[in-house]
Amino acid sequence: MLAPLPSDRVSSGVMPIPPLAIRDLTVQYGGRTALQRFTWNAPERGLVAIVGPNGAGKSSLLKAVLGLVPKASGTAEIFGQPVSEQRDLLAYVPQRASVDWDFPATAADVVAMGLYRNIGWLKPLRTSDRASARKYLDMVGLSEFADRQIGALSGGQQQRVFLARALAQQAKLFLLDEPFAGVDAVTEGVMTKVFRDLRDSGALVIAVHHDLSSVKDIFDHVVLLNRELIASGPVAAAFTPDNIARTYGVPLSLNSGQ
Amino acid sequence: MTSFLQIDLPAMLTGTLAALVCALIGNFLVLTRQSMLGDAMGHVVLPGIVIAFVLAGTTATWVMLAGAFAAALFSAMLVEFLRRIAGVEPSAALGSVFTAMFALGVLLLEQSGVARTSFDVHHILFGNIETAIWPAAAGLRSLFDTAALASLPPQLGRLAFGLAVVALVIVLLFKELRVVSFDPDFARTIGISPRMIGALIVALAALAAVISLSSVGVILLVAMMVCPPATARMLTDDLKTQVLLSLLFALASGVFGYAIAVLLPLAFGYEISFGAAGTIAVVAGLFQLAAMLFGPKRGIPRTV
Hints:
By secondary structure, chain A is an alpha/beta fold. Chain A has helices at residues 58-66, 107-112, 116-119, 127-139, 155-168, 185-200, 215-218, 235-238, 241-248; strands at 20-29, 32-41, 46-51, 73-78, 81-82, 90-93, 173-177, 204-208, 221-225, 229-234.
């Protein structure tokens, strides 16, 4: 608990290229600074939570890394290359509320979107693609909902459809925006298990997370953010009451009984 | 028979083809919540067409298309400028640009004198399907006579060509259109540019507007673009089925709308028929009303 601010370096013999390296990233919306000179090297693998208060720039961070919002300054590299060169290695799960679930599509249709890049431009879905979309739905426990219109699914099921779509991309780096927001216990269990399987297969999962009480249970790394980097590192070392208080601006007790 | 071939068939085909091409691209306007963009396109292309005509002195298809596209592009840029740089609210930007452009078009039309020769404001507003005639038709064998077919009204060829282009693009880019319409941020992360696909949708809407304008008129254009897809949307949750159903409703609106325009006044003893563009739009609206009332999935019975 009293360890100094840790570095994110994973102690392995060679220094591999980090899956995500962000340097001096600043994001501005019409003069308002959402993120200020953010520098961070992601660990090689594992589950990383990005936490911070509302308006701390968590979503902006993901979006700027992905090129969805312009960077005022700074760089973000995925395995040592610009994002535009590494699209095959990353999967993005936007906030559930960012799309219109009334759209005429089934769960399988949405999951198949994760295969589009692999299929290529101008080509239709093949029968094998439909089969593999079902396989990924099965991995999140939704095989019997494949042909259900997405608006007829519960919030947790919708979130799992998004997760299945990301799995279909067979990425090495997963960026998720609030995947646990408003989901049921079953979904939380499924997602936690899928995350652990991804970690065990060597992937890095980075999720914006809002529920401080579950950070320790689900994640092994944490990034504390409030417009600028407050602290980062393994949960045990960086997710301290001190750092949390500095991030949220008020002391918060986390039943840690310190 | 001959009078059917000379007068009714070409007019019905014109109205139906216009309804089909508008409905096809209309699916993606409705899905991306840009229904009024079709309306805007119909309005903004007018000054483009008139200027192109004045400059080139001909109503050749490619001249009209070039003028219309230039106007559509200019307007799209103007809307973006008002939104981003001047900070005008998006629908206000669209509303002010398209009405101003249309007013400019009408002004040019009146002042340049072309209104009395090649264009009629009334036709541009309300459409004029009835001038699509095929005088060379002399019976059923004309349908197989290349010389007679060559004298089919030119807008039929334009509409058929435009329908083929829009259909081809939608078939080829179906999954790209689907993912951009549903989740543009995700599309961008897999390397499919929402801006590029969005521009393509606008371009196809402009194409549909230009080739349909002289037949259905600017006011009814938006009915053609929005009603059939909105009707189809109430009957299915599958995008492909929705697109196909919208074509079916467009076809039915074209055929029944024209038939009503011709037959209904006759039934009441009037010599003059209705404007077919109007009845086609009314029929399209009635289909939508029926789907709203009786649709199995999304109709009123399901929601109340």
